[in-house]
Design goal:
Length: 260
């Protein structure tokens, strides 16, 4: 877990921000506070480019859904798809939301958030959620570290898939997927989902199987969100080439790369 963390807090309510800053500082964490959406990408870009800064590297982003100058959901998508902030585009993001509707919560996870905390909430609950995210990251990192150097080198090498839909290349060092040399702007979940399908092109996955393939902690109540992810991926691919159907629907079963 992060003994010294740096949280970017994006919240326009000064009272909520003040309460969270006090709680985070009691944990020994550093806090950077912004009260609007327009400053976030600039902050992240500057933080990424300032290699000589003594500032503790960012550990997570707390993002209010309702901001005065923009929608937190759209901002989350911009962060996930930004090329100017490097590895910061993969930081854990937790939404603060006054919206209690399940659809809004699912939408937040679909656009790339790692968790959400509905208002009103306890600052201690938010701390616990952040620590849980970092624990999962540590478990994943520990698993990778247990592999031998040869296997680790293979994992870091580009992966190539030659399929009827074209040539695919995945660059694990930059978490970037290319289709016919065109870079795809995918969220973390979309990237994992498409890689799972590409890695077993002859297989037809059910929604539950895809959810398990892309998550270490699948909540199968959210299996239907796979449909939304597939729709988003298809839309992006169609913008690049509308004449090729990459993901095929197998009615009553699920999805696969090869047609029935």
């Amino acid at each position: 877990m992060n003994p010294i963390a740096h949280i970017l807090l994006v919240e326009d309510d000064p009272a909520i921000a003040a309460s969270l800053k006090i709680t985070f500082k009691r944990e020994g964490w550093q806090v950077s506070w912004l009260d609007n959406a327009s400053a976030v990408l600039t902050f992240l870009t500057n933080h990424h480019q300032d290699n000589h800064s003594s500032t503790v590297p960012l550990s997570a982003i707390i993002l209010d859904v309702g901001l005065p100058d923009g929608d937190g959901l759209s901002l989350c998508q911009q962060i996930r798809h930004s090329d100017s902030i490097g590895e910061l585009s993969h930081l854990p993001i937790v939404f603060l939301t006054a919206r209690s509707d399940e659809v809004d919560r699912i939408l937040g996870l679909e656009v790339g958030a790692d968790d959400y905390c509905p208002k009103p909430f306890s600052p201690r609950e938010l701390v616990a959620r952040l620590k849980a995210i970092w624990r999962r990251e540590q478990l994943t990192q520990s698993h990778h570290n247990e592999t031998n150097s040869e296997t680790a080198q293979e994992q870091l090498s580009p992966q190539h898939f030659s399929l009827p839909s074209g040539e695919w290349r995945y660059e694990p060092n930059s978490y970037t997927l290319f289709w016919n040399e065109q870079k795809l702007g995918l969220s973390n979940t979309e990237r994992k989902l498409l890689l799972a399908l590409l890695s077993a092109p002859a297989r037809v996955f059910s929604r539950e199987q895809l959810l398990s393939a892309i998550s270490d902690y699948p909540d199968h109540r959210l299996a239907r969100t796979i449909d939304s992810h597939i729709k988003s991926i298809r839309k992006q691919l169609a913008e690049l080439n509308p004449n090729i159907e990459v993901i095929h629907t197998h009615r009553g079963i699920g999805y696969g790369i090869l047609p029935a």
